[in-house]
Amino acid sequence: MAIAANASPTSGLVDLSTGQISREIFVNEEIYQQEQEQIFSRAWLFIGHESQVSKPGDYFVSSMGEESVILCRDRQGSIHVFLNSCRHRGMKVCRYDEGNTPVFTCPYHGWSYSTDGKLVGVPFFKDAYHEELDKSKWGLVQVAQLHNYKGSIWATWDESAPSFLEYIGGFQLYLDLLLDSWSGEEGGTEVFGGVEKWLIPCNWKFPAENFVGDRYHNISHRSVDMVGIGPSGTGRRDTAERSGARFLDICFPERGHGTVMQLRSVDAPIPESYQDLPVLAEYFRWCEEERKRRVGDRWRLMGGPGTVFPNMSYLPRQPRSIAVWHPRSANQTEVWRWFLMDSQAPPEVRDFLRQYYIRYSGPGGLTEQDDMENWNYAHAASSGVIARRHPYNYEMGMGYEIPNFEDNGLKLPGVVLDSTNARAGEQNQRAFYGRWAEFMASEDWGRLATWR
């Protein structure tokens, strides 16, 4: 499908009035290329966690769309994000995933940069450049804006973008469930172990929409539930605490973020977990009691999967993790998954949860294998000439959204769909693709900041 000059690439492809979305947006290479310009060069993107660069000179190579970037801490302790490309001929100045260094040296012609991005070394500077090269103008390209939110590092290439806190809006409450410790301590988490990386033969939007609020696909995980890989040996997670909870889908149509929640009743007891493992049982009961004391009514919130638009998804409860769906082509996604742990967790808890994380997530995790198979086949089924003529259906729950949700005095930001009985809805997916269409059609943040 060719896109006419100056025409919106999404014209007629995302129809929120009918809940129909064209398969074209998943497989069209021209649309994919425009996403790099319209979305990934303007949105706030997750880079990594400050615990990955805890010491001066530490670095971690990450990605922003198709761009390789370096997250590093300079010798004075400040955090930076740089384009991983030499200003001379573009070679990567850092070819390792992570480490510690005093300088980044290009292996092509030898230009070298300090960890604050300044060009500090140029071979034959005196003889070849006659000392006339203004090194102050040729440092590493730095992101336009950077924000450290409770240890999570975010960046955007667009200097006109709103601040990160404005970009995230009321979704901040739900992101806190991921980044705060289990006991409610603000920002009390850290990255645990390495970052898992693997490739999936599908478009990046398939997994992003799955995590934004797809409760409907639990049939996919029936065999995993039967195996009982969860901490208590039943299902994938402890399920007793969910009894009597309300099931809510929550989205922010003006921002594209979404999550699913369980809301405990006002008089819900503190759940008993890991009873056959005394150290874990004692730790998590203490955490629940502390959290209830610190956050009050918000203790009732049990976080589920969520997506921060466009491509950062997470699980705020065990296995607590972050996934970024890096676009590599219209037909391929590179997945990176970080695992988080309470900084204060004792060794027995950390070791137990590490084993649980391995069983659950990643290319070797039983649950994620189910998901990857779905996304793989769904993408392949979008590519055919005939298949591309028929849109996908996202009608579920249309017209049943609650804009100002309140339960026993607890007000929740965002548009809520109460799916307690149905256990599923698709308002979050509609909001995600509505925001995607706005990014693809809008020229600047003057039009994108629709909440102002």
Secondary structure layout plus pairing:
Layout: E1 14-15, E2 20-21, H1 24-27, H2 29-38, E3 45-49, E4 58-64, E5 67-73, E6 79-83, E7 98-100, E8 103-105, E9 112-114, E10 119-121, E11 145-149, E12 152-156, H3 164-168, H4 172-179, E13 189-191, E14 196-200, H5 205-213, H6 222-227, E15 246-252, E16 257-263, H7 278-295, E17 301-308, E18 312-315, E19 321-329, E20 332-342, H8 347-360, H9 366-380, E21 392-393, E22 405-407, E23 410-412, E24 415-418, H10 427-441, H11 445-448
Antiparallel strand pairs: 1-2, 2-21, 3-12, 4-5, 4-7, 5-6, 8-9, 9-10, 11-12, 13-20, 14-20, 15-16, 15-24, 16-17, 17-18, 18-19, 19-20, 22-23
Helix pairs in contact: 5-10
Q: What is the correct CATH architecture of the largest domain?
A: Alpha-Beta Complex
* Mean model confidence by pLDDT: 91
Poorly predicted spans: 1-7
Determine the N-to-C terminus distance.
Answer: 35 Å
SS-based structural class?
A: alpha+beta
CATH topology term of the largest domain: Naphthalene 1,2-dioxygenase Alpha Subunit, Chain A, domain 1
- The number of distinct helices, counting runs of at least 4 residues, comes to 11
Strands, total number: 24
The CATH homologous superfamily of the largest domain is named Naphthalene 1,2-dioxygenase Alpha Subunit, Chain A, domain 1
| CATH uppermost class of the largest domain | Alpha Beta
Helix content: 10-25%
Shape: globular
Count of all domains = 2
**Main sheet: strands, sense, barrel:** 9 strands, antiparallel
- Gyration radius over CA: 23 Å
Beta content: 25-35%
Structural commentary:
The chain folds into two domains: 45-145, Rieske Iron-sulfur Protein; 162-448, Naphthalene 1,2-dioxygenase Alpha Subunit, Chain A, domain 1. It contains eleven helices and 24 strands. It has 452 residues and is α+β, with helices and mostly antiparallel strands. The strands form six sheets. Strands 13, 14, 15, 16, 17, 18, 19, 20 and 24 form a nine-stranded antiparallel sheet that branches. Strand 11 (145-149) and strand 12 form a beta hairpin. It starts with 13 loop residues before the first strand and ends with a helix. It has helices spanning 24-27, 29-38, 164-168, 172-179, 205-213, 222-227, 278-295, 347-360, 366-380, 427-441, 445-448, and strands at 14-15, 20-21, 45-49, 58-64, 67-73, 79-83, 98-100, 103-105, 112-114, 119-121, 145-149, 152-156, 189-191, 196-200, 246-252, 257-263, 301-308, 312-315, 321-329, 332-342, 392-393, 405-407, 410-412, 415-418. It is globular, with a radius of gyration of 23 Å. Helices cover 24% and strands 26% of the residues. The longest helix is centred in the middle third of the chain and has 18 residues, at 278-295. Helix 5 (205-213) packs across helix 10 (427-441).
